[in-house]
């Protein structure tokens, strides 16, 4: 396995690989955990050559977000990738990826798709995501790219971008991987103090509870949201919404094409930790 820092070197390797191999891309920001590992496993299973990108993308962080303190653990990540038979880690510097961060061309998803859920509280976030993912697609030119359902709005936006901009790439969604107690794995879980680690369980508890209710026949979205909010009482809920899975628009009555999504903030001594989670109903 090679760890590559420059676009030029990566392109040379991929030019050779592309002659007779299918290429899978797994875009990540590193601090790899079992959630990332499941994406990587899918890629190595379905492709002859897997590239994992590890890049903490500055353009998707807001001015008061955790860009500087985001965990950077390339050595440990490399070991994980090696064990998972990854062919290449692409780990560029911000300067390698952006000639000029403030003056470069950006890919901006539709306003109606970003003016909701995470995009509403993180202005510019999905412009940064769509831009860096487009750049990775153009650099790697993969046959398939793997994204976690954990970041449901991101997945929705990337799928739409691929359709709208005619990228010839198959987007493969991968299910959410959770801790045994239900907490969705996230690189940001490492920030949580002991008390908030316990309180964070309320996200999955709220989601699992309303899924169970919906399976028992309760289809009223407002009722389900109210139940979820009562489980999350006393927490700083940024949003809890039930949407149509395909359009990402609010619905009144749920079907088997519905998704519940939430973001909750946990203030702590070392800064606020913001967690997201979702479940298909
Ligand atoms: P990140 O490094 O947080 O940008 O995540 C890289 C990719 O891993 C994204 O497509 C995420 O949706 C995916 N991912 C992160 N956590 C999980 C998880 N718990 N289960 C499945 N996929 C995940």
Question: Concise description?
Answer:
The chain is α/β, with parallel strands linked by helices and 281 residues long.
Mean pLDDT: 97
Number of strands: 9
What share of residues is helical? 25-40%
Compute the CA-based radius of gyration: 19 Å
What's the SSE pattern?
EHEHEHEHHHHEHEHHHEEE
Q: Please list the strands of the largest sheet in the order they lie side by side.
A: 1-4-3-2-5-6
Q: Gap between N and C termini, in Å?
A: 40 Å
For the sheet with most strands, the description reads: 6 strands, parallel
Q: Specify the number of helices.
A: 11
> How does the overall form come out from the CA principal axes?
globular
Parts with pLDDT < 50 across at least 5 consecutive residues = none
* Small molecules held by this entry: adenosine monophosphate
Beta content: 15-25%
Q: Name the structural class.
A: alpha/beta
What does this structure look like?
- With 281 residues, the chain is of the alpha/beta class.
- It is 39% helix and 19% strand.
- The chain is built from 11 helices and 9 strands.
- Helix 7 packs across helix 8 and helix 10 runs antiparallel to helix 11.
- The structure holds adenosine monophosphate.
- The site of adenosine monophosphate (AMP) has 17 residues, from helix 2 and strand 5.
